[in-house]
Hints:
The complex is a heterodimer of chains A (447) and B (470). With 447 residues, chain A is of the alpha+beta class. Chain A contains 12 helices and 20 strands. A 6-stranded mixed β-sheet of chain A has the order 9-20-19-18-14-17. In chain A, strand 15 and strand 16 form a beta hairpin. The longest helix of chain A is centred in the first third of the chain and has 22 residues, at 103-124. In chain B, helix 1 (13-24) packs parallel to helix 9 (324-338), helix 3 (46-63) runs antiparallel to helix 4 (79-103) and helix 3 (46-63) packs parallel to helix 6. Chain B starts with a strand and ends in a 7-residue tail after the last helix. Chain B is globular, with a radius of gyration of 23 Å. Chain B is α/β, with parallel strands linked by helices and 470 residues long. Chain B has helices at 13-24, 40-44, 46-63, 79-103, 168-172, 188-200, 219-231, 286-289, 324-338, 368-373, 389-394, 422-434, 439-444, 454-463, and strands spanning 2-9, 29-33, 107-110, 112-117, 120-124, 137-146, 150-152, 165-166, 180-184, 203-207, 235-237, 241-247, 252-257, 263-268, 270-273, 277-279, 293-294, 297-298, 311-313, 353-355, 361-365, 378-384, 400-406, 412-418. The longest helix of chain B has 25 residues, at 79-103. In chain B, strands 1, 2, 3, 4, 5, 6 and 19 form a 7-stranded mixed β-sheet that branches. A 5-stranded parallel β-sheet of chain B has the order 8-15-9-10-11. A 5-stranded antiparallel β-sheet of chain B has the order 20-21-24-23-22, with helices on both faces. The chains are: A alpha+beta (447), B alpha/beta (470). Chain A binds chain B through residues 142-145, 147-148, 151, 162-163, 169-170, 303-304, and chain B through 342, 344, 408-411, 435-438, 440-441. Chain B: InterPro entries: Class-I_Pyr_Nuc-Dis_Oxidored, FAD/NAD-bd_sf, FAD/NAD-binding_dom, FAD/NAD-linked_Rdtase_dimer_sf, Lipoamide_DH, Pyr_nuc-diS_OxRdtase, Pyr_nucl-diS_OxRdtase_dimer. Chain B: Residues 351-459 form the Pyridine nucleotide-disulphide oxidoreductase dimerisation domain. Chain B: This is Dihydrolipoyl dehydrogenase.
Amino acid sequence: MPIKILMPALSPTMETGNLTKWNVKVGDAVKSGMVLAEIETDKATMEVEAVDEGVVAKLVVAEGTADVPVNAVIAVLAEEGEDVAAAAAAADGAAPATSKAEAPEVEEKAQPAEAPKAEAPKQEAPKAESSRSGEGDRVFASPLARRVAKEKGLDLKSVKGSGPKGRIILRDVEGAEATPKAAAPAPLASAPAAAPAPKPAGASDEVTLKLFDPESYELIPHDGMRKTIARRLTESKQTVPHFYVTVDVEIDALLALRKDINDAAPTIDGKPTYKVSVNDMVIKAYALALKAVPDAHVSWTDGGMLKHRHADVGVAVSIPGGLITPIVRKADEKSLSTISNEVKDLAKRAKDRKLKPEEYQGGTTSVSNLGMFGVKDFAAVINPPHATILAVGAGEQRAVVKNGQLAVATVMSVTLSTDHRAVDGALGAELLKAFKGFIEKPMSMLV
Amino acid sequence: MSQYDILIIGSGPGGYVAAIRAAQLGLKVGVVERAHVGGICPNWGCIPAKALLRSAEIFHYIEHAADYGIKAEKPGVDIPAIVKRSRGIAQQMSQGVGFLLKKNKVDLIWGEATIAAPGKVKVKAIDGAPKGWLPAGDFEAKHIIVATGARPRVLPGLEPDKKLVWTYFESMVPEALPKRLLVVGSGAIGIEFASFYRALGSEVTVVEVMSQVMPVEDHEIADLAKKRFEKAGMKILLEAKVASLKKGANEVTATVELKDGSKQEIVADRVISAVGVVGNVENLGLEGLGVKIERGTIVTDGLGRTNVPGIYAIGDVAGPPMLAHKAEHEGTLCVEAIAGLHPHPMDKLQIPGCTYCHPQVASVGLTEKKAKEAGYELKIGRFPFIGNGKAVALGEPEGLVKTIFDAKTGRLLGAHLVGAEVTEMIQGFVVAMQLETTEEELMHTVFPHPTVSETMHESVLAAYGRAIHI
Lengths: 447, 470
């Protein structure tokens, strides 16, 4: 029997992946543990290892193919003693090959084409009450919620239930807005697919392209990361009510302490074992501030407020083609040198796209620092389910007034974006106050 | 010094249920009590009062035995025996609570508690510790739940003296039947005692400051109940208040000011002051900790949290409605939230209320007046007991089930019942509300025949013009 190699699910949320590279070719003998291919998911590049032994009979999916669904056959192995050609032929019937040239087309059309098909039976369902969708996924909702939803023209599938075991109850539909019946797949269905980036209303690709002479541009297909950034940040700005608070912090004491700390670093082979950056200190101060103002250390869910116990701080790292936020777990409990070395390691592997999903998924908040570009002040977009993100500007010498006298101080502006559903303005201000306290009295971070 | 996850002050329905729920969730729990194991409800409230009312009910049946074709000798009332039965039941229930707490490995601490600081409770020794309880001392707990309940409200000029002016404590253990009784206040406590004493033969006058008896109930239900009380021989003065009270050796003369400003003197052997209850918020150290208290009760969110982290309040002390089942549910929610289970805060509109006067009254949700004030367009169903075979067979043809629906959505906004057995029926509507049924599911529900509960079904049908038996 030929052995089929399937597209693996490399993270719990992965639906598709891009097959970026084959490390084997037809005829190669494969041993268990051997790296067969490299797969690019939405944020990372990962290796596919062989589980079975055999000889590569056929590479079903060509190198460079995008959006290969999880569990699709990507290659066929012939077992020991099996005829390679026969195994390849046997596999042909099962899975048609996708060539590299076709890939962009598949990417554009595959998802939208499937979705309406899945939707069709629902629209024909009697009374469109969506209790019986024909797909077996029953929507649990109270009779009253059903009736109110029906009157509002609300598709219950688009509503998140807050009752026991996710049952949709009156309060869930009372505040919800009507969903147009002809709408594309409801969020539940479209979220995992997620392939087409959400388009701003009215500006379809066609309309946009028509504005430009075909000779005047080059169309570069989006990679997984670009699509994820587009989807997540659109979702954030559309669903999270952002609120911004800015504060100036003086960092002269912090810079002095940083120098002391780095001067005291032990050396191995003449190289210091750590070099703490201002950003490392910002991460630590922010983590401690979140612990000091626990009401601001939360995530919004419709069912209730998640109050986090550990400050897991995501650090936005700009990498070619996008950005990613690896997470410093329990930053409040870690020393500055530990944080510093961890961030260096995470940033390096982020640039190589070698982070494991658990290293960039989750987290309770993020820090984004554009100070190195000389940016004075900016506001960052929250990365749900976080309720906050701290945008850090450049530390620069500014004229300040102290005790009625003009003086020079190194000042850094930071802007906190908060999810107003979870963190109100005053609470955000309180968090920044705590942050400012740690930054301006940096020794307090060490005790 | 013992360290608890949760320390609960007060072992009433709120406190002991919270303790048992916490123990079920694997938390280390202690309960402090200073007087009655199980609190007022089993000792001096709900339960012994029901025992008394049952005696009154039996007496009522025997007095009317001839209506049912039964010959009975002239029945008599043995007050000490009635009280003895009631106290026996109270004791049994109180011991039961102690047993349940021990079974769930809850530490029981006897004494008077004050919260020294968040996380720290000082318990002062007092006499009367039941066997097996821990002695007083200092205790630490991550979470402290105040469940100290409430006590009778005292009106100036109507101060209880244990002899002539009673609270529910003295009313529960009369030595003899007062010939003439004045009841001030017609809420659940007042009207139940009025019913009890009237049934046994006292001349009862009820003075109520509001324009209806049982002021929280729907006016239509209250008016029907009032007619029945008056038919039973009770005197009821509405929009009236006791202006002054003159005490004699063994009787009192009350001057009652009526609606029109005129005054009426009422001579009574005993007065029951039932003008409400107030939360036990004092001497707990709450003021020093800055715990927010409004109108005599502790301010909490829907999950028992006060404004001070680590300090919670449930039950009567956390505000109205001051009902045992509200306290129990609040206790459960509070503990589950502490344990991180994310319960939903309680919807106070779905707390039923039951009054065991004769006839019984039970209700849940909005009254007609409140529903109108809230801006709903209403569909109202009424079904009288006279149209129900079982009620007539029982000899209880006087009663009414009133259901109030939101005309737009079919949401059941309120249900109000008066008549025999209604306190055992109301939960049908409570379940319906909790599950958010509309009139349609209630109509589709098969109610068993012959039962009084069929009146509930008919009332729903009546709201939509479909009642069968009327």
